[in-house]
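Task: complex structure prediction.
Instruction: return structure tokens for all chains below.
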Amino acid sequence: MMRNRWVHFTVAIFASSLLVPFALCAQTGAASKSGSASQSSAKSQAPDLSGKWMIAPGGASLDPADPSGTHPDELPMTPWAKQRFDAAKPPFGAKGTFAQNDPEQIYCDPPGMTRLYQYPWQFSIVQTAADVYILFEYTHAWRLITMNQLHAKDFDPTWLGDSVGKYEGDTLVIDTTGFNDKSWLDNVGHPHSDQLHTVERFRRAAQDTLQLQLTIEDPKAYTKPFTAVRNFKLSSFPLGETMCSISEDDSFQKNIMDKTVAAPSK
Amino acid sequence: MRNRILLVFSLATTLIAAVPAFAHHGTAGYDMSKVVTLTGTVSKVQWSNPHIYYTIDAKDESGNLQHWSLEMSAPLLLERFGWTKDSIKEGDQVVAEAHPAKNGAPVGISGTATFLLKFVVNGKPLPSR
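Output:
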């Protein structure tokens, strides 16, 4: 399955060079003369979400009522989740500390799907007829969203889950399940379980603004679903590279982080 | 070592209004209500993930040499603010502002995704915001 995804990805990058006419077609509503009737119909219904989108700093918590994480204990957590939340020492929010135990920052673990939208770098949406790809600057993560298909019946839980998508009017709807439970939900230490199910609804709120409504459903961790909203601005910067490197991080840890959590100087 | 002897030293602490900040690991270890101004010589440039940091040799008000480490944002973000990896080099004379560590260690933060404090390198200011 992983090999197939790499094939998909390679094909997508090649296909992205063909997307300009596709995007223009979507914007103008004009049908491609060279495509079949069904292909033209499908393309004309797809909103153009392509571009490089900048994630604004902030919004460390996915609690819709408390995006800054001032009261991170107010999400409706189950006892299972509360135990993990209490053990978390996150970098942000009311519990923010440099003496953290965030697995992403200690081990360079993948941040998980939901946290990819919480760091102030760009992502790019690449739309093809069969798939949508989301390419993130942060850790160079990429996601495959298979369009108009059901979830795979047999897959191993993964950091980013299994994503399928469809268009509803001007909105791209992505349904993801099949997560492992190794990552945090957000930057203030809210946990998630392997029962996490997300629904992302992307639409252009304006020509230069992409809006995401991210619904979290995780009955093992939360007693009811909730939906966080984020807006991303169109960017002109080229996609760059931001990696997590343990060797680089080790130098930073020793020279910055460790010194700031040492006992106060006398 | 003689080349690193500092020409001008000052350490000033100023109270300022708290500013929103974003660093990969947060800013919980820093006193964001204070700014120190360091005048000294750059002894190390670490242009890498997750954050750039510079080491600056500067003397405190008592004349004692201190080795400060100043955290910046990630390379990609600092480049988008107009800096390059050659903006500051070892041996440069700098005047630099930083929010100091809460525990009194000679560590500070001078830039994140949301702010970039004053840096003057060999008499020329770098972009700030």
